[in-house]
Amino acid sequence: MTLPLIIAFDGPAASGKGTLASVIAQDYALPMLDTGLIYRAVGYQREKRGLTVDNVPELVEIARTLDATGFDNPELRGREAGEWASQVAAIPQVREALKRFQIDFAHQSAGAVLDGRDIGTVIAPDATVKLFVTARPEVRAHRRWLQLVKSAPDLAYEDVLADIRLRDERDSSRSSAPLTMADDAVLLDTTDLGIEAAIEHARRIVRDRRGSK
Q: Which of 120, 155, 158, 212 yields a CA-CA distance of 20 to 30 A from 148?
């Protein structure tokens, strides 16, 4: 019997985990879920409906009835959507409502690749391979700024850095499933790595961990 291959990528915003997860998913022909998009979608709906983070029952209902076909909305990739996602992700009831969707996705028959904040610790603690991808805040902010400035020429790097630091603090200090590295995860610091080098490191980690199991 072939066990499912579950690969978990965790880490803070703009660490590169999404890019790495996408490449690894293609390598192994596995479905991939960017779990940040789930929270961005809930945050987007909260903003669109004029709700506050105190409207917990309404936000839980949005999470429970979320339509996955809307994840390709380009507005979910923007700077504001990232902040909205961080806000709703700090609400335990919202996280619980979205937990089952992620667990089911991870445990498909062949397996899956997921990237997020609590994949290796909460969603798939039984994952075959766990990577914790990080980089210095200044480096992550610069990467995110390069992405966002294309559509927002007046955006200041300092503002993006402030957003990154705020999200790091919120993600790490929330009461429900805080951002933390699983005990059996492999740390991958991409601060001084180009994209190709980071990909090769990730590939090596997956190969080594699969072989050891």
A: 120
